């Protein structure tokens, strides 16, 4: 059966059809439309206004099409009953069409629990879902916060600062990065291996210091850029090491 037999629309949360469209689809005479709406809808003791039907504003286009000035929004159930009253082949087709519309509406509606046990089970399932969603939010929030903190910063940071994020000392962090093949030590300074050195992960700073003989010397300190910090985050996470905020 064609799904556009009669147009079904939504009005105030209900599926409704036009009384005017239904009337002429049933093949009734144009001259009897006003009498039909009065007897079968407005004055029908089994139909209630604003429940089963509702008066609509005049639609000029529809007036030109059908030559009728009044129209009413009918619920699917009301329209089905009116179609059954027609006792014609087309009336039966329209009735069957509305029955299918009702079935679709029922199947789409959420099913209510039929017993106390079902209600308890449903409540437990909903609570479990809420707890799972809450847990996911808690698990995801630290990651977002850590990334936001890193991306928000434009400065370089020392290995000591990064190590604190993971509850490690600078010595432990340097040893781990050496173990993972990221860096090596030369002349007291940690340097990245060739494949990482050109990626913009670090910057070197030279600073003066006073020797024991009171002469001035210089040392080079390697600091991590924020790009490097994120690189370390991904690397360490792949190796099962998470920052404290994500544990």
Described by strand count, sense and barrel closure, the largest sheet is: 4 strands, antiparallel
Question: Strand pairing plus helix content: what structural class?
Answer: alpha+beta
Tally of alpha and pi helices: 10
H-E order:
EEHHEHEHHHHHEEHEEH
Oligomer: single chain
What's the N-to-C terminus distance? 59 Å
User: What's the overall geometry?
Assistant: rod-shaped
Beta strand count: 8
Whole-number total of structural domains: 2
Average pLDDT over all residues: 77
Helicity level, as a percent range? Answer: 40-55%
Radius of gyration: 38 Å
Q: Strand portion, in percent? A: 15-25%
Q: Low-confidence parts, pLDDT < 50 over ≥5 residues?
A: none
Order of the strands making up the biggest sheet: 1-2-4-3
